[in-house]
Amino acid sequence: MKFLTLISVASTIATSYADWQYRTRPDLSPIELNITIPATDDKVSPGFLFAAPFSGYDQDNTHGPRQPGAYIFTDKGELVWSGFSYFANWQANFQASRINGENVLFAFEGTHNPGYGHGHGHITILNNRYETIKELRAGNHRISDKHEFHVKDEKTGLIQIYHPVPKDLSDYGASADQQWIVDAKFQELDLRTRKVLFEWSSLDHVSPHDSVLPINPWQAGSGYNSSDAWDYFHINSVDKDENGDYLISARNAAAIYKINGTDGSIIWKLGGLPGKTSSNFKVKGKPLTFSFQHHARFLSTSDDGSKQVFSFYDNSAHGTEDHRGHEVHYSDQSSGKIVEVNTETNEATLLAQYDPPRGHNLLSKSQGSTQVLSNGNVLVNWGSEGAVTEYTADGTPVFHAYFGTGELGKHVENYRAFKFDWHGYPAEAIALHSDISPEGDTIAYVSWNGDTETSYWKFYSIDKVSERQLLGKVPRQGFETKFKIEGETHSKLVVEAYNDQHRFLASSDVVVSEEQVEEKRVDTKAKFQHYFAWLANKD
Ligand SMILES: *[C@@H]1O[C@H](CO)[C@@H](O)[C@H](O)[C@H]1NC(C)=O
Ligand SMILES: *[C@@H]1O[C@H](CO)[C@@H](O)[C@H](O)[C@H]1NC(C)=O
Ligand SMILES: *[C@@H]1O[C@H](CO)[C@@H](O)[C@H](O)[C@H]1NC(C)=O
To answer: Which of 161, 159, 164 is nearest to 136 (CA)?
Structure first.
């Protein structure tokens, strides 16, 4: 009896939930941004928000996004593109970029192991019609990891690999059974030929003694077999400067390194935990510590090369993503940081730090990114906390959002977030839907997943085969535009998209209006609460 009731509740919700989002796309259930600091155009940087939110609890999946995947949003929280189903499996590091003159999107897609913080897969590249044009894997028969893919000068790609190798680890506190270690590698690939131009291997240059994550029998990565190899170094970002040298973030060494692009030697190391990590620099000015950091990016180099500025995300915490593992905290909160190193004076200076906005307590034990935007603003993505903040350069928060609302916002994580200028011309057809209300009005809805160009829509009635009657020219309202023609019943409609230069972009197929016998829309949010209450009580 109880069983039957539950089935009927669940099926009602499935249909009403889809309607609740978009009439034209009942199949899409994108995340809703919970914006706690709304963006105002004069303060935020231009561009769209790119993210790939997912559930932090892979096992039971209660909850997190209904459709985890790559998304493009406006900073007003309006959906631009749902990439759900475009990339397969688990996705991360979703970005816009330019390769050999072509504007592209890319993301990592593959498997995800939250316990070990590893992902195995490849990079998938889409064109500006959202069509797959290339898959990219690491060279030299190595499996690519999820953490990094970064395009340099439109021509090459930086990619990263966790390569397990057997090794005698008795010097590092391991028992005779613990013999596997992760050799953290990165490669630079020619994006046209896929040739490996450079490969670097951590075990050639960095001793396992430099790890701040000791080999412990009780944690993931304790060296018992190749899939449990000790991840002593953990490269999670790679960048390259004008001189051809590399910048890597090694999370489990709590350090950022500059690597010679000719011979692979370490040019310098900035250690983040004084007393625990070695460093080539002493800190000048404000205190500077960091650990388990992510996403180090070169920002500038002085003319003589002695000073370099870079940004990164300082987690200052470590732990597995499912809360079951061991946690280490070196601060109460994570932050975005900008640092200058001077190789003449051997000093490191903290130039700027972006703390969570007041009232937002954010300490992420995994993931995260810091992007310095073209107007000097800074976008900080709080990794396992599932949130993103934009700041002006002086540190004033001008936008903050969580990736999800209500129950669906729980346990959402997002590896990296970015803001990019982007122009999308979808290969998908325009979605048009038309209802006839009981009063005889025609209510039309239109959307075009991924379109950034449409400025207004022209709706036509084609009730009589020979004529098209223009019903109205309607400014684009967001992802979905609604147009109500009161007191007129039109059984067949078509819609055309125009850009702000009045150029015709595309036309929909002809759709036949659906008669709405009565207003069936229920209070879906109330139904949802009921469903979640049932989920919560079901054990
Ligand atoms: C590898 O070692 C881990 C940790 O001891 C263990 O949980 C896992 O089952 C092992 N896997 C295989 C394939 O032996
Ligand atoms: C990098 O290595 C090459 C070859 O060993 C050397 O000539 C060059 O000076 C090094 N660059 C830096 C910045 O140390
Ligand atoms: C949005 O986030 C705030 C801060 O965490 C929370 O208090 C609020 O309930 C959230 N709103 C929704 C609709 O999820």
So the answer is: 159
